[in-house]
Write a structure and sequence with these properties.
- The chain is built from seven helices and five strands.
- By secondary structure, it is an alpha/beta fold.
- The chain has one domain: P-loop containing nucleotide triphosphate hydrolases (Rossmann fold), CATH 3.40.50.
- The chain has a five-stranded parallel beta sheet with strand order 2-3-1-4-5, with helices on both faces.
- The relative contact order is 0.21.
Length: 176
């Protein structure tokens, strides 16, 4: 089974992913592509460029396509489409050229867990707050409203980290 945790930065994705990895026996946690690329020496610009987000998109797709067994991914390809859609250089990226490979990877995901920016915001002083809100709106449409019509199985979680993990566990029981 493949689970992907999706959401803008500073929403608690990492905390949830780690909690799920601790709670779900046999699941392996794959850290988000950003950290994988940093470990390999990729130097990200501040703020990240379109090329930086495309590199993360490529890594996300490759990781999902190569995965085996029970895996929790921190982020999925839709996350990077969301960031690219709101990027100031959005016109330099054509999502249509990537949609087939994004769809192929997304078909393998059994459950997407959307972690939204909550109201009131738990982390109001996060870096790039306005971009974060725009990404949150974009991801809501991509994931929860299934804008690309991928037939996604997605849930939205909220509350404390414990409550969020419990919501995911309950959904997983419903899937079995």
């Amino acid at each position: 089974m493949i689970i992907a945790i999706s959401g803008a930065h500073g929403t608690g994705k990492s905390t949830l992913a780690e909690a799920l990895a601790d709670r779900l026996e046999g699941f392996v946690l794959v850290e988000e592509p950003y950290w994988q690329l940093v470990e390999e020496g990729h130097a990200f610009s501040q703020p990240p460029t379109v090329n930086d987000f495309e590199a993360q998109l490529d890594r996300s797709i490759a990781s999902i396509l190569a995965s085996e067994g029970d895996v929790i991914f921190e982020r999925c390809p839709l996350d990077f489409l969301g960031y690219l859609a709101v990027h100031s250089d959005v016109l330099t990226f054509d999502p249509e050229t990537r949609i087939d490979e994004v769809c192929k990877a997304m078909e393998l995901i059994d459950l997407i867990v959307f972690v939204p920016v909550e109201d009131p915001d738990r982390i109001p002083d996060v870096e790039c707050a306005s971009m974060r809100r725009r990404v949150d709106e974009e991801l809501r449409e991509l994931v929860m409203e299934d804008r690309l019509d991928l037939g996604l199985n997605a849930i939205e979680v909220f509350g404390s980290p414990e409550q969020r993990a419990t919501m995911v566990e309950l959904e997983l029981r419903n899937l079995q």
